[in-house]
Amino acid sequence: MDLKSEDYKEIEFDDDINYTSDISEIDNHSEFNESEKTYESFEINNGVKKPNRLKRFLLDLIFYAVIIFSCVYIIPNFVLQRTIVEGKSMENTLSDGDHLYVEKISYRLGLLKRFDIIVFYPYGRDHEDYYVKRIIGLPGETVQIIDGKIYINGEVLEENYGKEPILDPGRAVQPITLADDEYFVLGDNRNISKDSRYPNVGNVKKENIGGKAFFRVSPLNKFGPID
């Protein structure tokens, strides 16, 4: 059965009404979204979300405080420190005014070896005076100097760090047996060095060691690891 023209127009008109209704629903939904955004903006502006910003700020503040504390206190006291050589007792290896980096881990872990260069406090940590010397005798060993030669446990120590032959053996003219926490140290410039040969320095206790010198940063023409 054919539709009359009037019926066709009526159908078209009805479709338009339905379409217009759909558009209205979309517009209403958009208005709802805008309302949500407006409410969210109201929340932010009125401090509802400000605690999150405050939390992030506090976390950042704690993070940077930890970094500053590590740089100012932990690293210099327990890891790494810069030291300046004073005097000529370590020539020709080190010179007066050399700037060194000293690491503070080896001696704590018992990793110091013969011929390592250490920084120590001859009069205890309560005094600011420190010396830079080379380890010759290790804990438990017996050290003696005879005719300019160093003996460890009765055997001649083969080494070439000394600038000159030793003229004064000091207290090492007699055998010196080191305790389990003691080291015997000498300066490389041995005839002017104040070291374990003399009673005012004596054997170096582990508790008085400040660290192991391992790197020279100044002067620049000697920049690099030290031996």
From TrEMBL:
Transmembrane segments: 57-75
Principal EC category: hydrolase
Recorded catalytic activity of this chain's protein: Cleavage of hydrophobic, N-terminal signal or leader sequences from secreted and periplasmic proteins
GO terms for biological process, alphabetical: signal peptide processing
Membrane topology: Single-pass type II membrane protein
NCBIfam families membership: sigpep_I_bact (TIGR02227)
PANTHER family linked to this entry: CHLOROPLAST PROCESSING PEPTIDASE, SIGNAL PEPTIDASE I
The name this protein goes by in its record: Signal peptidase I
Organism (species): Herbinix hemicellulosilytica
